[in-house]
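Appendix B. One record, verbatim.
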Amino acid sequence: MPAKPAPIKKKPAPLKKVQKATPEPVVAPAPEPAPVVEVPPAEPAAPAVAAPATGAEPAAPAEASAPAVEGEAPAEAAPADEAAPADDAASSAEAGEAPQPEEPKAPTPPPPPPKEPTSAPVDLFVEDKNDTSVTINWSQPEVVGLSGLDGYTIEVCKDGTEDWKAVNEDLQKSCRFIIKNQTTGDRLKIRVVAVNAGGRSLPVALPEAVLVKEVADRPKVRLPRFLRQRYVTQVGDKINLTIPFTGKPKPVVSWTKNGQPLERGRVNIRSTERDSIIFIRAAERDDSGVFEMCVKVDDFEDKATLTLQIVELPGPPASVKIVDTWGFNVALEWTVPKDNGNTDITGYTIQKADKKTGDWFTVLEHYHRLNATISDLIMGNIYKFRVFSENKCGVSEEAAITKDEAKILKTGIKYKAPEYQERDFTEAPKFTTSLANRATTVGYSTKLLCSVRGYPKPKIEWLKNQMIIGDDPKFRQICVQGICSLEIRKPVSFDGGVYTCRARNNHGEVTVSCKLEVRQPVVPEAEKK
């Protein structure tokens, strides 16, 4: 049955070209306007005959006039819609109208960045602590993000629990915080959380719980310089030594003597928070020894050693004897004392006494050897000798006396004077230092100096321009120990010239000369006017 002709549209839309040639489509009649579908022919088809001028519509082919299958119509609807703008543009072109440009669309705003928390703070450590507070310090997170950083929350809980509580009401801006009002002896776990618009970061916690207790500074004994070596004092002296130390909290101080606990009898110890004092009212030799002071804080300790040496006068030498006597000499020997006074022997003092008078005279002092020879004794006298010991405290109170006596026998002694060969010391005069040229100013005294030797003592004469000066009061001539000088008092221009010093004795004559220039003083131009 032939299809009914469809009404002609006012603005037919041209179909898209398919491959090389496509026939113009014919709109099939339909009860409702249907989209035009481009159906490619199986074979090339002849183009449709143009419509007559009378307005009669050409007959549509059977294939083109057939309506689309019902099942396929929805699938081809989308291409028809896509072609609609092109049909409208083609229709506008046929009508002679210019196509209108499309309005630009506004750019789509980027999505807002996601709000993420920062990374965890770093480098959390305890800066200080005492009996009631703990001061902590940390560094800001490595990754902060676009959301920024609002602050920090500090949380604590007791060791062994997980009951974390914030100790700051408002967010902490700085990276340092003091956790106050804590109980002494509690062990606290501490952590810090960074907060921003994205929420809380991961916490950073201390590796170990913190004991709320005053920080223990390592103890240190400050031994004074004069006590670092042996401290020596005499018997009966008062000892009052102060040894400072440091440590926090107050260190525990203990003393020992020669490795044993110190007995608080003669030695008194008084300790404060800063020093320890050792006091002995009257020192004795038994107080000598090595004292050790120990200061201890918790598991830390420090020690210092103090060596006390109480000394006194030494005893006398153990023995002294006369070994030999010859001529005017006596040889002595002695032994070291049994009691050295708790210090080294520094020397000996030897004295002699004549049996006639009994007076003792010191022969040698601070003598270090254990034997000596006493000389210059008087012939015919009998002598005794004694020896004292010495140390840094002084000379011993007693002395060791020889049991035997030394008698200087009278013997026939003839003195023969030595014979000396006489020497001839005669010598002609000779100047060892010559005169030097001099220059002086009018009115200023000057001296000419030279030195001469010779034997017998040479006679000195001064000459001016080959004329003997003589006893002119203007000149002063001196010759002492071979040093010859000529002083010219307030010279004038006339006193300039050649001066000669002449020395002569029985063995010869010698001269030396110099030139003296006397200059006029320089007068400034202002004074001339």
